[in-house]
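ARCHIVE CARD
SHELF: 3
SLOT: left
DATA:
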Amino acid sequence: MRFARIVFGLLLALVGLLVTVAAGVAAFWLVGPDDTLDTGAQPLSSRGVAVMTAPDLVDRHGPTLHVTASAAKPVFVGVGRDLDVASYLAGSEYSRVVSFDLPSRFETQAMKGRSAALTPPAGLDWWTVQATGTGDQSISWPIVDGRYDVAVLNADGSPGVDAQVTFGIEIDGLFGTCLMIFGGGILLLVIGLLLMFVRRRPAPPIPLPIPVPVVAPVMPYTPPAPKQTTQVRRTAGLAAAALLVTTGCAAVPLKNVSQEISTKPAVTLADGQLLLDKYAEVQNRVNQTRDAKLAATIEAGPRLVQTRAATFISAKIDAAGKNIAKPVSYSDIEVGAPEFASYPMRFVSTAKLSTGLTERQLGVWERSNAGSPWLLTHAVFPATAVDVPPLEGLRVPGQADMAKLPLLPQTAGNNLAKYLSEGPASRQAASFVASADLTVLLAARAKEIRDQPVKDYISTVADTFRLSGQPTTFIAANGDALVFVNLTEQFLQTIEPGNNAFWTSGEVLAYSNNVKYFQTLRQDYLHEVALVIPSTGKTRVIGIRSQTVGGGGS
């Protein structure tokens, strides 16, 4: 029995020693009182523009991630959704951290691509957390379920990243758990040593009366073997308790379940409000300076075409700047941000104008990739009394949504072009509910068509609208389709043979001033239109914005 005690004690002592050393190293060297296990500063570098983690590397949520980066030049460190980071770095050369073994072994993979500088990362609004500057730059992020990447870049987005990076994982109660395991290891060690070196005192002999013959033992004690079994059970219980301590005192981080679900709203309300504030600031500078290049930093598509035309016309016709637009600001901003799984992304905004209490701006914003800015691509100004579909719950249409509409957006755009070309007498007019600004446009064109043939040098007049490009469509929560279309218009006057004509007034003078034409006079317009296609009933025109974009003749 003594041999068994010594062997069992030796095993317990060895286990206790190993647990004590491991827990002591973990508690006092790897973890510390801040509950954080970190790698220490490790060199991470790339010939390209960034070092980023693979999305499946951060595959558990719950703990807090701490990252500190430092470099010889200003450095950026941030955490972002994988769909944003991947789009931002798409086509660029960078290094990807594909595996990590505690405490400090990293394996990277070089991703080939172009080495051109990126947009400075700190100016992008989609980072979950970020830090940038000189010296040590640190971030802390409570890890959430989903596909996220950690990225380290030069602050200016230039290639050639060379940084010292420390990763740390903070798990609540980790230091306390290590201490408990450390204490359990010491307890096992002590029990093992006791079993090995402490000898049990033998029981004192019991005197027996000589005259009385011994017929049976009268010792009341339990035999030694059962006592030894009890000690083994107690020791095993302590070992089991220590095992429970090691496995149950600190929560194991949960495995991510949404690794395949990678969608996000195009923008948050707060970012949308900041965006419109910035847009108003730049727009006012564009109006003051008539700088079309500056307009390209906040606008794109048909909206930019109209702004370029407006600044060109203003500079030509109002060289002294007497009719510069008043500064504008936006209030009561609302945002409709559909969910997207990839770029490009779009959202809709509506806001009241400081320059007019009777109308508001309704616009579409687009971002082509994560490294590009948000740009306003469409804008109309419906009256505040006009019913606009609710923006909350706005989504990109699917096939099922399109199937429920009485007509497709492309068909609605073509019908509207025919309606405007032919006027109120058009067969398509009955399909639309016209907005106030559309009614004004129709009346103005009708008057021009009536007046022009009165002139003896004009023989005919043709006014033709055409759908330009593809409609941009969103589905509101009530099932209505909010559609933005662009229409081109050519107002063409045919000159009587043997006569000539030239433009004498209007915005077209910016394109043709005192130039005589012998065959035709031409004015070109671009119209931005917002429509609502309900599930039943007529298509409503809720706003149209018109701009002269060319003119002349032949």
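SLOT: right
DATA:
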Amino acid sequence: MADPKLISFDLDAGEGQGLPPLVQDAVDARVTAVGSEIYVRPTTVDLASFLLPDEVMPDDGVTNAQPLLQRALDAAAAMYSLVGPVSIQLPVGRFRINSSVRWFNGYHVGFIGRGRANTKILPNGEAVFGLMDPSFTVGNYLDDVTFADITIDCTAQVSTANNVGAKGIALRWMRNGRFERVRCINTWATSFGCDFLQDTTFVECSAIRSGRGVTGGHDSFGAGFGIGVGNFAVESVTFVNCYAEDSWSSGFFIERLLEIPGTPSDSRGFSLTGCTSVGGYNGMRDAGGDGVITTGCHFLNASNAGIHIDGYMASGRHGGRNGIVSATVIRGNGVGVLVGNAATGGYTFDNSEISSNVGAGVSVTGQIGSGWRFSNTRVESNGAGGILIDAPLAVRPEFLHCTVRNNGTGDGIRLAGDVIEAKAIGNTIQGHRGIGFSLPDATKFMTDPFIRENVVTENSGGAIVNAKATNDAAGITANREGASFATLTNLFTTPSYESGVTQVAALSRFDAPTQVTAGDAKSGGAYARLAVNQAGSATARIARVSGTLAGAYTLSAWVRAPKEAIIRPFTVGYWASNASQRTWHRGGFRATGSWQRVSMTVVLPADGSRLDFDIALDSAAVGMNLDADAVMVTAGTALWPYFDGTSAGAAWTGTAYNSTSVLTL
């Protein structure tokens, strides 16, 4: 539309001279309802009301629908003074737009479709469906605008590389806005790129493959949901049950903008509830929010970090601060939580799970403010350490009742720089090749630590190791500490079945075990296989360890079965020269058809004599195969990464592939 001014209608004119008849009916109904002082919903007008004589609805995905959508938007905006905000009802169809649909001053209008699978907007070229026109002036707002039940499919959207403006929806200055069940697909840049919002909610929206046209770094645009902040003290933006997948930068991105039209503010009021981000670079990035609340969310399989908290210190913008993450799962990412420069506030992680990330569970590499807290959170099975705070200064960090276990090659908890009033109470820190609780560097200072009632055992580098110049170490007390150790022993003598399967036995409904030397072994070049010969629950022993055994032991194996089956590990322990025995069961879980690791931790009395590690294959059908490989039995409760005598740093204690193996740490 060339003229950005609102279209003017004569509401008293005769038929054909004022509003279209269907629109006039909606106005009359609205005015009557308002006059009778009852609540009414915002006015909804069908898109068909704005068709010109003999004009056909452009819903075939080929005809350019932009002229009709813009005409409807302009006309609906003119109704605001009489009926308030208006929603245009889109019919079932595919609406291609060859140029952007633009919002101007006073355009308090949204669009509602007939369901995401039924109503689709198809931007073509550089077109954007929801674009704030450059003539929109600061100090104006879009009030009570609703978008619902549509898909914006940007597969045909093409622009120059790194064009930040080629988004799915690019609106600013919304107040009391609402996005419900809106899906953006294959956007060139960010899917939902909306700045300076107030009291605006996104409900069950999704952004899939955002940022196709980005070729630079992952730091900025190309987000699923990208919210620019910093213009108001309160910018309330709520995400409920929203979903992002394969976003170039972040699934959810809160960014303190550098160019603020009004008075820069430390904006608060952001929350995510029940949201999920899968894949992409970051799950959620907080780069300048104040008090972001994240509850019941999942951040999974991002290549960089599940949650990334940082700022742009060189430009004077603080990172995310004072946020709260609770009841949230952060799993399978490059790093669980990555913290750069967030030097002006704290952050709380409570009752959450940070697990199975490739690197550390939590890695702090830059400056942080005071008051970082981890409470009732499980940090487990990460590859390179648990909670590693390598900031130059940590003020009042707190670790309360967390489980920090089996985090690979790094330390459990580390505070590398100067430390003021660290508090660590009631944590379990176990199973690290580094130190359990590390306070390194004699050139660093620590004041008034309160570290007590922690269980810090089975850590190769030691339990609580404090090298800092400390004013009062009396607060480090009443902890259960295990000694350091230099080696681990795998007690199972044929862990990868390279020498045969003599220690494997069919207990019920399996044929005798065979050795398979195909190229798809989990470790080495062989594995054990058992074939089901009778439907039902088939059982097999995959490992046996005999000798003088006492205390806790952790047994693990990699197993593979068809996805129709249920894998159920169990262990039989013997004592008193095998005269007494006890069986411990684990609940079953669905097989995936690929290698899966199973584990159990059990305990034997002082006269323990044998452990049998068994697998039941429930819901088994005749002809199904159970494969087993990379079996390990180690003393203690920690689940260590698999090793045998061929692993780096390890050696067989006797005959290769037919003896125990020792790993030097």
